[in-house]
Amino acid sequence: MTPPRARWVAATGLVALLAAGCGADAFDPGTDSDSTESGWERVADAPLSPREAPLTVTVGDSILVIGGSDGPPCPPNAGCAGPPELLRDGAAYDPVADAWAPISDAPAPVGAGPDTAAVVGDTVYLLSTQYPADGALLRSFLAYDAAADSWATLTPPGADDWWSLTTVAGQIVAYLSSHETGGSGAARDPIPPDLVYDAVTDTWSELPPDPLAPSFDRRLVGTDDGAVLLTSDLVPDPGVDPPVVRAATLDPASGTWSRLPDGDVLTGIGFRRVGNVLVSAVEGGADGGETNNWGRRIPYAGLLDPVAGTWSELPERAERDSLDGFMVPGDVSGERTVVSGAWVLDVPTLTWSRVPDPPEDGHVQGQAVALADTADGTTVFLWGGSRWPDGELVAEGWVWRLPPPG
């Protein structure tokens, strides 16, 4: 069994960040760390203590930084047995004014994780999981009203499963990332339903069963009119056939699903909504290896237009060493842009550019990342983390303002 702390580290996206620090190109020690020569700019000091892996979420023109851990950080590539102590405080950052404002403390500790927060209007809904010393798993479902600076404790979707959140036609949906039973490869019986939240009654109801179950690597992406589900088949003999992405759309008004063509892409986990299309900008691909070679290399990246029902390949990008230092911790997207690892993709023009060298000497893990589309342009935001080899927690933030499309 994976130790609780190791699971938390993976959930916060730190695993992806490990590759960014080891062997990364560091700044010249003689340069000013606040210099804009790298393209990154140091933000104003936050009213928060140093910490690792806070939750960051964009609401309107502001970026919220909430919770995280100020306990002893887990060293890179290590498995730590104890779970971190999580914090409740937070602050809102205005990237246009470069200014912070503290927000009310959450009613429960908050830890970051992939897809654990979703926004409807001015309200952030978030799931936070805690691991008390007695080994019990505690999950909180919270809502933060950014306009009123107030919190509410809500009814969680379930106590025994790992849920992700998305927004579908203005409603919060909780869905499972896999139908597997304990990582065995076998499907659960019965298949648990995905759930939609009613904010008026604080209750959950079942979504109609999807036509792609049982499946794994499930990704439900909300759109203005409904949702797109991306999955891979959960089969008894995995690897024999390539687990290409299956797709379907949900019309929440009628409760009906419609199948889309399969994509010649591996895993839907990396797909994000950008405007009216879904994009995965994840580098690399796979060919099945020696045992179950598929006869071709299938990419992780691709573009799906759910209205037209068409898939497209992304343009080629230059080869790079995965440890060359160009990396942000996780993928973020906006109205026209995806920032993924070393790369920025301008989706309307399908052109690539590189992320500048990271604004740190050496290896920093546990940074939080967010993207904000404002009237002044698109801003990528990094904050917090732990600096190695000393394991020093930091309370520093950086922004990189994407150049306007050429």
TrEMBL record:
<dbReference type="InterPro" id="IPR015915">
    <property type="entry name" value="Kelch-typ_b-propeller"/>
</dbReference>
<feature type="signal peptide">
    <location>
        <begin position="1"/>
        <end position="26"/>
    </location>
</feature>
<protein>
    <recommendedName>
        <fullName>Galactose oxidase</fullName>
    </recommendedName>
</protein>
<keyword id="KW-0732">Signal</keyword>
